[in-house]
Amino acid sequence: MFYEERCTLCGECLSKCYYLSYPEAKAKSEFEKLIKGEDSSVTRECVTCIRCNNICPENANPFDLISKRQEETGTFPFNKDRLINYDMVSKIPSKITIGDPGKSVMGVALIQKARLPGVLEGQLFEGLTTLSGGDYFSWVGNVHIGRQSLVNKENVQNLVDNYAKLNVDEIIFYHEECYVVVTYFAKEFNIDVPFRPIHIYEYLRDYVKEHSDQVKKLNMKVAYHPPCSSRYVNGMDEVLDELFELIGVERVKRKYDREGALCCGSVQSAMDTVSKEEEHEWRMKNIMDAKEAGAEAFVLLCPVCIPGLRGRAKAQGMEPYILSNLVRLALDEELTHGGAAKKFD
Ligand code: SF4
Ligand code: SF4
Q1: Domains of the chain with CATH codes
Q2: Considering every ligand atom, which ligand is closest to the CA of 44?
Q3: Which residues lie across from 78 on neighbouring strands?
Q4: pLDDT tens digit string along 198-207?
């Protein structure tokens, strides 16, 4: 939610944005136009990375206003065919795979074997009950396609209810967006969540701690690419740092990590106004920043970020890994489908 009463019209959200980078006067005036509901270039140029919600010194959530105006005006240039694809993915039939009695429940949303082979294999996932498909689909992605209003109380309540039907004390969320719905958005809509949501970082850290005798320290420098959903999550970066330390991984300091993270490029790839060259340039800024910081590997979390970055990382000599696969490597498991669900020659 945008808090207009907190906004001082300082313009920092638009002047510090990597993609808009407006001069101060323009940043102030364009943001004022957004507040007044007037036409603004921002609704056409913003790539929905959500970073300005973290930039704003007043915690006014400027992206929530931008997103609202993108929908109201219909000016966000998201490709119509890609919109149809998104809708089809959100309707994938739901499935509950019952695991071993006493083992945890994990929401895996839309992580499909066909698109990300090997990702849910190995001891980290053995015996878990898994929940997949449309009933467990996070609605947060709608903020990236100009349909913010679908992240509403009714849809969030439905999602919480679907998970609550499992009647368990806690649920692990592999996909961070789903964790965001049952934490950040449930709180925003005053929805009671009758189970404890476990972030994937927490699950991996605790698993590694409990199996420390199996861990072989990787002694590796990695670059991490946080998903845009991390803008809604508090306190988990420290958990990730702890996990990295436990498996012997150094997270290199770089411009485009933590608060400074870039969009993975997936939204730009679906914007009619962004050329393939421009999309590639932005992705390469991220990759080269990682390489120049001395990373040997490039680590990702979100399944949407993976396809556009793994090949580019590999081409620059950095092995790409999905976070859980990096942990599997430290547990001495063979990654039969590669670190990021694709074998490279
Ligand atoms: S939303 Fe925040 S950063 Fe943007 S103009 Fe208002 S106070 Fe400044
Ligand atoms: S969401 Fe990202 S691209 Fe859009 S204005 Fe905010 S910082 Fe810029």
Answers
A1: 4-73 (no CATH), 82-202 (3.40.50), 203-330 (3.40.50)
A2: 2
A3: 271
A4: 999 999 999 9
Question: Separation of 222 CA from ligand 1 center, angstroms?
Answer: 33
Residue with tokens 């189970």: 195
203 and 236 in contact (C-beta within 8 Å)?
Answer: no
CA distance 226 to 262: 8
Ligand 2 pocket test, pick from 2, 55, 63, 76 with the greatest ligand atom count within 8 Å of Cβ, gives 63
Question: What is each CA distance from 276 to 240, 267, 309, 314, in whole angstroms?
Answer: 33, 12, 14, 20
Distance between CA atoms of 196 and 153, rounded to whole angstroms? Answer: 19
- Which of 12, 41, 56, 66 has most ligand 2 atoms within 8 Å of its beta carbon, as the pocket-test mutant? 66
Contacting residues for 40 by C-beta, under 8 A, at least 6 apart:
30, 33, 34, 69
Q: Please give the distance of CA 89 from its chain centroid, rounded to a whole number.
A: 17
What band does 113 get if pLDDT is binned at 50, 70 and 90? low
What residues contact residue 324 under an 8 Å CB cut-off, 6+ apart? 119, 124, 174, 200, 204
**CA-closest candidate to residue 51, choices 32, 71, 40, 66:** 66
Residue nearest to atom 2 of ligand 2 (CA): 49
Structure tokens, 16: 């510090």
Q: What predicted TM-score, i.e. pTM, was given to this entire model? A: 0.96
**Ligand nearest to the Cα of 6, by number:** 1
For 219, phi then psi, to 5°, come to: 45, 60
310 neighbors 343 (Cβ within 8 angstroms): no
| 187-246 pLDDT per residue, tens | 999 999 999 999 999 999 999 999 999 999 999 999 999 999 999 999 999 999 999 999
CA distances from 34 to 10, 45, 94, 265 (A): 14, 13, 39, 25
